[in-house]
Here is the input.
Amino acid sequence: MGLALVQIPMFSVSSSINMRIITTRRRKSNNSSKTRHLQSLPLFSTLASSQLPFSLFSRESTDSKQHQSRCSYMKYMTCKVSCNQVEVEDDINDEACELVNGVELSIGEGDSSIQAHLFKAVKNNNGTGILLLSDIFGFEDSSTRDFAYRVACNGYNVLVPDLFRGDPWAKNRPKALFENWLLEQTPERIAKDIAMSTKWMMDEFVAAGISKRLGIIGFCFGGGRVIDVLAQDQGACFGIGVSFYGTRIDPSVADNVKVPVLLVAGDNDPLCPVSVLEDISKRIGKECKMMIFRGRGHAFAHRPQSPEEDRDAEEAFMIMRNWMCEGLGVGT
Here is the structure.
């Protein structure tokens, strides 16, 4: 529908691990001889990636120039988020495709431990950790995993914790039960679990000298928690954040946010009013950037439902990618 830009200028915990390797295979399209569709193996129901791997054993590139700038790496890719299947054009450079490992983690010990998925870029890993906070449908939801996978394809290590401890909201539950379910997701417990996940990432990527600071991304419920986390953190662990249509945010907490934040939403989203985002942006100040998509409702960026939303979802992802790349100094 179009984009309205509102911008204020920018600028180890013990773990038990079971690893699953993510691979894909090609199949011929029935609709076009110029398009190939990728179908994933069981770990994902759909893969929405800017750089999908064609094989676990894809070849190393013989052209070192391809990998000199991670910030511009996506220029070799023509794959995009879609409300249908992921599509890759025939002129794609297979050797430039990224590989991603999917790892199942248990972070913490005993009853306090939580489950998480870690998506790690295998080739051209930039060593930077990204914490991704899911919407109410949880860390195992295919749309959340697809997005995490796609971020990892750009060279990152993306951790997606189980914010709801095995009890995410399910689409088939009666809506009348939602508020009671939400009351069980206490802010104190969720904050504790996010802190535990953050410590794990700090131990893995920052303390080891691999990365200077982490990035954080969140959708919907998780997008609201991004603001809470950054306000509490005040730049200690996280160097940058992205909130996609965050919900249940107290704008006053944004006064304590000390790092650049990108706010992405649609102007037709009653769950994330633009007026609330404007308040947050003013409180954060010059390091906040708002991207408002005209005509878009809730969750369009990671759950596009139409070709029109596909285009805006792709644009939102590219804006986010460049924001993270520049803010975290990837490739510099």
Observations:
- The longest helix spans residues 307-327.
- Residues 19 and 106 are 12 Å apart (CA to CA).
- The radius of gyration is 19 Å.
- Residues 5-97 have pLDDT under 50 and may be disordered.
